[in-house]
Amino acid sequence: MSKSYDIAVLPGDGTGPEVVAEGIKVLDAVSAKFDISLNYQEFDFGGERYLKTGETLPDSALEEFKKFDSIYLGAIGHPDVKPGILEVGILLKARFALDQYINLRPVKLYPNVETPLKDKKPEDIDYVIVRENTGGIYTGMGGVTMKGTPHENATQIMSYSRYVVDRCLKYAYDLTRKRNKGKQLTLVNKNNVLTHVGDLWVRAFEEMGDAEYTDIKQDYNHVDAATMWMVKSPEFYDVMVTTNIFGDIITDLGAMTQGGMGIAAGGNINPDGVSMFEPIGGSAPKYTGKNIINPFAAICAAGMMLDTLGEEAAAKAVDTAVYDALASGKIQSMSAGRMGMSTSEVGDFVASLI
Ligand code: IPM
Ligand code: MN
């Protein structure tokens, strides 16, 4: 009997709808082949709706999302909306409310994709960053006193409980084992300065690894050093695990080394709940409606969604089709407008390779 999944689709702002359409094209091809049925329901949350109604993401929508198997997101961000409103009101709200405590961001260089790292080849850039996704500085703990005066004092606290650290580490260790590549997990932190929070992460990391994952090699980098090694020796990495804010920063660095935002995908994952998959590049408003934006990141995000749903063969097929499309040499660049194909032609091409 064919398996059926309900997918909430949030195309969102800017070029979000265009790339989501191509992702769905590829999902439809792969679901036909693997006898999966995907039922999409579209939601219009984003900048336009906010400007019309003042609504970002109502609690009722979050309750509704809980009934779905997964969420597929295009992009959030609108030039006429003050920065922060949509990011906090939609993206972060969904991550928190659905307890998507893992942000999974693969850094993988596909063939013929240009990397700014000199002499690095696809076999050198293939690792995964596990970013803790609901804790740390992002909880918003802190506050401000004497605002607007010369004495204004603001705090934003990096807060981590052992529970939140442990569940993230467990995911990262399990993933390192499942990936079975270098069997090496690198903890990225800054325990020379973060003597409380960093120390908690390091102890939890070592205790868990020593007790339950003796097959996994434990490695540690300070975050500043990690940014150097990600540029100089990316081949060293297998899986990295880090805090929310450090992960936010280093995953953008990783994305650039794999060819930029046109190809970088991410998953906001609740291993026991509803996860949400997105191209991490943003809404790119200036390219909206031109059929020139690169849809690969959205296609890769769709593949990650299948993998998390447990449809590993279908996920692999998406990855292979992306690989083959790029290996063909027919895509000239990862930049919008310079691919040598339109957005929809890229989608057609990848779908045809499934
Ligand atoms: C990301 C983004 C978000 C984050 C912003 C838009 C809130 O940069 O997904 O990496 O900081 O997590
Ligand atoms: Mn970011």
Q: Pairing-aware structural class of the strands and helices?
A: alpha/beta
| Order of strands, widest sheet | 2-1-3-12-11-4-5-10-8-9
* Level-2 CATH architecture of the largest domain: 3-Layer(aba) Sandwich
Q: Over all CA atoms, what is the radius of gyration?
A: 20 Å
Cofactor: Mn(2+); Mg(2+)
Keywords: Manganese, Metal-binding, NAD, Oxidoreductase
Pfam families: Iso_dh
Organism: Chitinivibrio alkaliphilus ACht1
Can you describe this structure?
With 354 residues, this protein is α/β, with parallel strands linked by helices. The protein folds into 2 domains: 209 residues, Isopropylmalate Dehydrogenase (3-Layer(aba) Sandwich), CATH 3.40.718; 142 residues, Isopropylmalate Dehydrogenase. Helices cover 40% and strands 20% of the residues. It contains 11 helices and 12 strands. The strands form 2 sheets. The chain has a 10-stranded mixed β-sheet, with helices on both faces. The protein has a two-stranded antiparallel ribbon with strand order 6-7. Helix 1 crosses helix 10. 47% of the residues are buried. The site of 3-isopropylmalic acid (IPM) has 5 residues, from helix 4. Manganese (II) ion (MN) binds next to helix 8.
